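dumping this here before i forget
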Amino acid sequence: MNIRMFVALVVVIAFGAAVLAANQTDTLSASGGDIQITPIMHSSVQLEYAGKVIQIDPVATYDNVELPLLGKFDALKPADLILITDIHPENLDIAEITKLRKTGAPVVMPAAAATEAGTKIPAPTVVMANGDNKNVADVGVEVVPMYNMQHGPKAGELYHPKGRGNGYIITLGGKRLYFMGDTECTPEAKAAKDIDVAFIPMNMPQTMTPGDAAECIKAFQPKVAYPYHYEGQKRDEAFLKALLRGSAVDFRANLR
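structure:
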């Protein structure tokens, strides 16, 4: 077994544990009924509201290694709407999109992801750019830029350049849910308004440390905050929880 395969298997085991831990659903009261929020793993989240299922970045593989537990995860349901944030395998899993997508369900994605997928994701697709605001499948979808300002693999290069990927604010039953995607705490993120639930990335070096995440949460003050884009490191959760002590934000790390 080569070192790359060994590392991939270790990650699969860690993700498998996160999947089991995430096999829970939280409830948010909204106009017209409750919103069911189910974090799946890493960047994947399932929403249910008024008979509609929304999947954000549904994935079943990591580094080309299948995550066997995910196929047995009872909470996964066929999607009426799918949103993709970026081009990476942990965001864009064409096989899983095909598996979960209901007939005629639109897939929202940035242009870079549409190019990456090509004809493998057939219509209806909706390409949205940073700053766009549309109603898709009777769901309000607003795109917030997601990008790095400092972090990159080498000098002069960023992990996530501005304009390639999308963060999304989804409006359901009068509630605004913000999925930040792979991003640092950008001015656009800090300027987000009236956010009821925020999913905050917390994986270094690509996005934010617990300290960065706490700064961002305090800047735009979501009512509820979940860390995501990480594999449930309890130490990082504890750091973030401690940094938010005394704030009005409802910090929920127990689902991941």
